[in-house]
Recover the amino acids of this structure.
């Protein structure tokens, strides 16, 4: 599994230090070096304050029927801070903290914060695994980060410790089944560029030679309106050159969250070629367009009846085999947070304890 996930480290490259999990450590260092070279896609010469689609977070807040006012929100692996900054600007009574292991990304985030004159958002350089905070958070948001981490349960455990008793973590990760096309292309690029491993600026040329690109709407959310050449280039590098990428299945999310100490987990949103939509594990013939219901995934009533007889983790395994998601958002929390979840989220929930 490791070889499929880790890009070649390269001949003569110094990776020699021992640890409990060398893959995790080496991957972490390479990942932060990579994102220093390609700060996440929102960096635009710092001329412009980013404005991003916060729909995935907003839906959660609406369904949990509480407002952002007074909340403390953590954006874990915030990149250049586009979401944290947007959240802070749109919700002046919310306190937002963002951190990322890439110092260059955090420098851009701080510049945006200064530009916007915001005093309800702060940024720091940290890894997920090492992050801690004396003031806990009501919401931990972590978008597109954990699949880059060799020891995700450790990172999730650190995020779990940052939550208030009623706090919820909302985590979006790539899914192994729907991301397979990119993983195969990554391997091709890796083989062609082995001798240049770690020299990402040189490796980028293989992406052009192979005519590889990633549509701005591949993951259905978080995209900015304007798609400049440099944004597209960063998106491409992010997809094909990141030094460590290991997409998850629903079962991985359950296993890592359990190990991290969460009490419950719900698969909340699923990204497919149709975009990112809420998931409802109930049979609904008239689900709104933003909800994928079990009836849509499995039109056969007989199949749905059989699924109803299965434990929820098995049901989820069947759903992901059929949907082959590109990514998914899951929610997780402690016992006290479960009560505030909507009936849809509760119906999607697996108990972990
Ligand atoms: C695909 S980007 C996503 C950035 C941001 N969350 C967003 O949605 O735009 C992945 C980010 O995860 C960060 N990252 C990767 N591994 C990390 C770790 N172990 N701890 C903290 N940040 C990490 C990278 O530096 C990068 O900024």
């Amino acid at each position: 599994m490791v070889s499929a996930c880790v890009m070649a480290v390269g001949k003569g490259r110094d990776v020699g230090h021992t640890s409990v999990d060398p893959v995790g450590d080496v991957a972490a260092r390479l990942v932060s070096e990579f994102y220093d070279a390609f700060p996440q896609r929102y960096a635009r010469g710092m001329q412009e304050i980013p404005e991003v689609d916060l729909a995935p977070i907003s839906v959660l807040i609406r369904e949990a029927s509480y407002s952002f006012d007074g909340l403390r929100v953590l954006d874990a692996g915030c990149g250049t801070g586009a979401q944290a900054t947007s959240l802070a600007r749109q919700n002046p009574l919310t306190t937002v903290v963002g951190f990322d292991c890439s110092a260059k990304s955090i420098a851009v985030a701080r510049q945006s914060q200064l530009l916007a004159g915001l005093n309800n958002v702060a940024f720091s350089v940290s890894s997920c695994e090492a992050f801690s905070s004396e003031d806990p958070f009501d919401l931990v948001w972590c978008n597109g980060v954990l699949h880059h981490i060799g020891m995700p349960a450790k990172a999730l455990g650190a995020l779990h410790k940052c939550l208030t008793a009623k706090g919820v973590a909302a985590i979006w990760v790539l899914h192994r089944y729907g991301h397979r096309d990119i993983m195969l292309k990554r391997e091709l690029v890796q083989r062609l560029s082995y001798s240049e491993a770690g020299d990402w600026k040189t490796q980028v040329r293989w992406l052009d030679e192979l005519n590889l690109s990633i549509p701005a709407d591949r993951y259905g959310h978080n995209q900015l309106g304007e798609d400049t050449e440099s944004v597209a280039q960063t998106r491409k590098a992010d997809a094909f050159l990141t030094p460590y990428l290991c997409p998850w299945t629903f079962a991985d999310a359950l296993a890592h969250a359990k190990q991290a100490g969460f009490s419950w987990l719900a698969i909340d949103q699923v990204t497919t070629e149709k975009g990112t939509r809420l998931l409802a594990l109930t049979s609904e013939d008239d689900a709104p367009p933003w909800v994928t219901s079990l009836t849509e995934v499995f039109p056969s009533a007989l199949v749905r009846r059989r699924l109803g007889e299965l434990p929820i983790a098995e049901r989820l395994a069947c759903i992901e085999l059929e949907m082959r998601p590109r990514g998914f958002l899951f929610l997780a929390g402690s016992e006290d947070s479960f009560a505030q979840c909507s009936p849809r989220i509760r119906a999607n929930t697996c108990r972990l304890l």
Summary: Residues 80 and 105 are 4 Å apart (CA to CA). The pocket of S-adenosylmethionine is lined by residues 28, 31-32, 35, 40, 77-79, 82-83, 100-102, 105, 127-129, 143-145, 148-149, 222, 238 (CB under 6 Å).
